[in-house]
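BUG: 3D viewer hangs when loading the predicted structure for this chain

Environment: internal workstation, default settings.
Expected: structure renders.
Actual: progress bar stalls at 90%.

Input used:
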Amino acid sequence: MSSKQSSHRAQSTSNANSTTTSHQPLTTQSHNRQRQYTHLQSQLAQLNAHLADMENLLRMTAVQAEYTRGLGAWWGGLFMASSKILGEEGGAGSAGKRKEEEESQDPSRLA
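Structure tokens produced before the viewer hung:
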């Protein structure tokens, strides 16, 4: 069978299906349309519920972000304070070590 014949056969089959569909009784089409509207309405109700849930979650996330920001500032203050305290202690000790290292490397300074 040639491609021309097969395309003609497919076209005639699709035409037969479309004529069958278009000649359905009005009550069947009305019933199908009503069923589709009902299904669409239930999907829209579900979408509305999910949007409300998402709105609540976004509100909670915004509040938690503010708390997280506050915690970050608090921990940053603690780290800065601890580095200042440890830096003062480490600074005095490291300055003494640095002086000893310089003296041990430069023998001319000992004389």
